[in-house]
Structure formats: C-alpha cells, structure tokens
C-alpha cells in the first residue's frame, strides 16, 4: 500500500473560473482597487447575483500575484507615553478605557467602561454603558470631583487626557480643548 493524498476530489464552494477571470480582468484595469470595489463592480457592471466575499476576492488576487498582504513594520509607531503622569501614591491617576462593545441578549449595545487606579492597578469601576458617553459615568463616581486628579485614557481612545477638577464641570480636557 502506498500513501494517498487527503485532498478532496471536488470543491463545491470553489469560485467559478469565469468569475475569477472577471476579478482578475477588473484588477488589471483598476490597479489601485481592492476587493470591496471589485465586489461592487461585479454586481453592478457584470450583473453577478451573488459575488464572492471580499476575503475570497482578496485571496484570488493574492493567489495570482495581484496583491500582497501588508505587514505592519515593528517599531515604526512609537508609544506616546512621554506625557503620562507617573503616580506617587494610590488614587492620584486613574485610567479610563472602553473595552470592545457587544450585544446583550435583548439586542441592545453594551460598551464596557473600566476605570483603574494607575498606581495600584485597582479597578475602581466597571460599567456597562449603552454608548461611549463617559461623562455620565465619571460624574457619579465617588471622588470624581477631587482636586487635581488626572485621568488618562487608552492611547487609541476617542479622547486623549482628562483632568478631574473641583472647579466648574467635573471634567475638562487637558490638551486645551474645552
């Protein structure tokens, strides 16, 4: 007995060769277009009722050398933590970060928000929010009106830095934008 291949004899989900040729032809005409635009073009210009998924079109282009997968170069994007306040004691700096949103059982969106003490890494609060409106959460936290307590968000967040003050509204943007 000799070893035999485990490869399937037929591929029922394989993209039709004619559609594959259309994808490659459109890519040759439009060198800068990606899978999304080519998928839209297959529907509108060529009348394909069910065009392949964008990931399939991307794989077809890669297989024929029309596209290469981009790689993120390590070290190109510097960490922007030079301006962070280094805490000397607990409760001096809080970090505020929205984690990824998800749907609840009743199809409502939930945006989990965490507030941590940067010195002790103690989680001050975890709140499920209906949206990313952080002001209402920070306003009802104990100690949110304490004097000169900076609060920092995650670098990729929607805002850069917050400062919790006792004067005026509870929150003020630290970078000078009120």
UniProtKB/TrEMBL annotation:
Region annotated Disordered, chain positions: 136-157
Biased composition (Basic and acidic residues): 146-155
Highest taxon of source: Bacteria
Name used for this protein in its record: Uncharacterized protein
Organism of this sequence: Horticoccus luteus
Species lineage: Bacteria, Pseudomonadati, Verrucomicrobiota, Opitutia, Opitutales
């Amino acid at each position: 007995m000799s070893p035999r291949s485990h490869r399937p004899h037929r591929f029922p989900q394989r993209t039709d060769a004619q559609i594959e040729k259309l994808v490659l032809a459109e890519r040759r005409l439009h060198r800068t277009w990606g899978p999304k635009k080519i998928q839209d073009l297959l529907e509108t210009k060529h009348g394909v009722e069910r065009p392949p998924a964008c990931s399939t079109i991307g794989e077809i282009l890669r297989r024929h050398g029309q596209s290469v997968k981009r790689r993120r170069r390590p070290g190109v994007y510097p960490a922007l933590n030079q301006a962070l306040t280094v805490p000397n004691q607990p409760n001096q700096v809080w970090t505020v970060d929205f984690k990824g949103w998800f749907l609840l059982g009743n199809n409502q969106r939930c945006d989990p928000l965490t507030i941590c003490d940067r010195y002790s890494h103690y989680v001050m609060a975890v709140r499920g929010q209906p949206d990313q409106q952080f002001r209402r959460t920070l306003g009802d936290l104990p100690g949110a009106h304490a004097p000169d307590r900076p609060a920092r968000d995650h670098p990729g967040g929607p805002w850069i830095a917050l400062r919790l003050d006792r004067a005026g509204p509870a929150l003020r943007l630290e970078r000078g934008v009120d």
